[in-house]
Design brief:
A hairpin with a 5-residue loop joins β1 and β2. Helices cover about 70% and strands about 10% of the residues. The protein has about 200 residues and is of the alpha+beta class.
Length: about 200
């Protein structure tokens, strides 16, 4: 009676079976130490395979497996992110006309800022003429120019340099806008054609 109780408990937990290094088939009610370096099968009470236990890995093998698993997860995440970005692009731009219109709008905004900056450059050119007229009197010895005039010349130079830098940055922004839309267009063309999911 006690024996059948123990047997039913073992079957409830599962029976482990494997073939050891010498080719001998071993069965036990717990994982088999002699088969830690090879696959073991856990059987149900009916004798069907409940699960397979892989060989116990060394620290180096565990580390390599973790690295492989991490790479697979990163690749899966990258593919998922790429699909999400593609769907977002397709939602935003159903066709090339919509994409071209968005590009034109973005460039128009940058051009408006550049146009305003160019007007400011024209104002600075007028200021320079006025300063040159005042400095005309001191052209033989600029060091004799009054302090307020020297300060105005220095302020003018600072404003001119700042405005030139601002315009250069806006030109770079225009290039960034074009580059972004070019990159999007390269990705969108196959999506519009239905080549990519």
């Amino acid at each position: 009676m006690l024996c059948s109780g123990l047997l039913s408990t073992a079957y409830a937990q599962g029976i482990f079976t494997c073939t050891d290094a010498r080719g001998k088939k071993i069965t036990s009610d717990r994982p088999i130490p002699e088969c830690m370096d090879r696959e073991q099968k856990e059987l149900n009470a009916s004798g069907t395979v409940k699960r397979s236990l892989g060989p116990t890995l060394t620290a180096q093998e565990v580390s390599a497996q973790e690295a492989r698993d991490k790479k697979v997860a990163e690749d899966r995440a990258r593919v998922g992110e790429e699909r999400r970005r593609n769907r977002a692009l397709l939602t935003r731009y159903q066709n090339q006309a919509a994409h071209d219109a968005e590009r034109a709008s973005a460039l128009t905004q940058v051009d408006a800022v550049i146009q305003t900056a160019n007007k400011r450059m024209a104002e600075l050119a007028e200021q320079r003429k006025a300063l040159d007229n005042e400095l005309e009197f001191y052209k033989n010895d600029p060091s004799k120019a009054p302090g307020y005039l020297k300060r105005r010349v220095a302020e003018f130079q600072d404003n001119l340099v700042a405005q030139q830098r601002f315009i250069a940055n806006q030109q770079l922004e225009k290039k960034r806008v074009n580059d972004r839309f070019d990159e999007e267009l390269t990705r969108l063309k196959p999506l519009w054609a239905g080549v990519v999911n």
